[in-house]
Amino acid sequence: MESVKNIEKLLERYLEAETTVAEEARLQEYFLQEDIPAHLESYRPMFQYFKVAKQERYTKEVPLKPGRNTSYYLRWVSVAAVAVLLVGVYFNQQPLTSSTDQFASLEEEYTPEEIESAQMALAMFSKNFNKGTEGVAYLKEFEKTTNKFLVNE
Question: What is the pTM of this model?
Fold first, then answer.
């Protein structure tokens, strides 16, 4: 049986994360005994839990491929989002005016500098959006290749 002083030193090192696996095993062995000093009694449940937790195993099977339901669900969600967007645009539409009237009202409402900066912002948005769609194409190709390897295994 280990002395209480040694166990206290070992426990202090354990709480500072400085112990080895062998020292932790000694601590666990000590705290599984029946006669433990009262001031160390509060550590007993922790070490008993560690013993039980080591024996636990996850027995359910983990799927490696995402289910079809996920992709099917995402497709319908995207279709619904587009439909909601189109309905919103339809009901918020201003009465149609000729295209020359629209440009004339824009020029009356905004200065040429504001219009030019808006055009630059839209061009930058378009450029970055196109970069993003290229990245999605790479991801799609990566997914195809990965699925080929998963199916072959």
Answer: 0.37
